[in-house]
Amino acid sequence: MTTAALPAKLAEIQEDFLELEQKDRLLLLLEFADELPELPARYRDHPDLLERVVECQSPVFIFVDVDDQDAVHLHATAPRESPTTRGFASILAQGLDGLSVAEVLAVPDDYPQTIGLTQAVSPLRIRGMSAMLARTKRRLRERP
Q: Residue 33 maps to which CATH number?
């Protein structure tokens, strides 16, 4: 897959990972884990609005929001003691933020496999990130 097919934020994240050696990619993933945006108060106060991503080994919950300008905002929560999962959630939350619904739906399903972490983390963890992306797209398709 070429970076030209990706929205700019996701392409930049992909490039940042691929420019690093394997061992340093995990450090970048940990940086993303630390940068997972906090849930807005309206979701913190109503955890029932969040959907569990059961494919993830750790308890990950997401909510997909679309504002009046058709911009997508992915909100996610994952435990601090699950930095890999938090990192994946953060990559998607940051990389998809502000994209249009059509742009998010056009993100290749295999994006999680293209950021250079398949050697560094287990396939099960990569599948968790793929499930987060798939659920995000499903939520967007189900919108009224």
A: 3.90.1010.10
Residue recorded with tokens 């992306």: 133
State which residues form the domain around 108: 3-142
d(CA 78, CA 36): 9
Q: Residue 25 pLDDT > 70, yes or no?
A: yes
Residue 4's pLDDT is: 53
Query: Which H or E run contains 26?
Result: helix 22-34
Which tokens in the block code for residue 144? 């009224």
| Total number of domains in the chain | 1
Quick one: how far is CA 123 from the chain centroid? 16
Two structure tokens written together for 72: 């997508």
Whole-structure pTM value:
0.93
Determine which of 13-17, 20-24, 38-42, 79-83 has the lowest per-residue pLDDT on average: 38-42
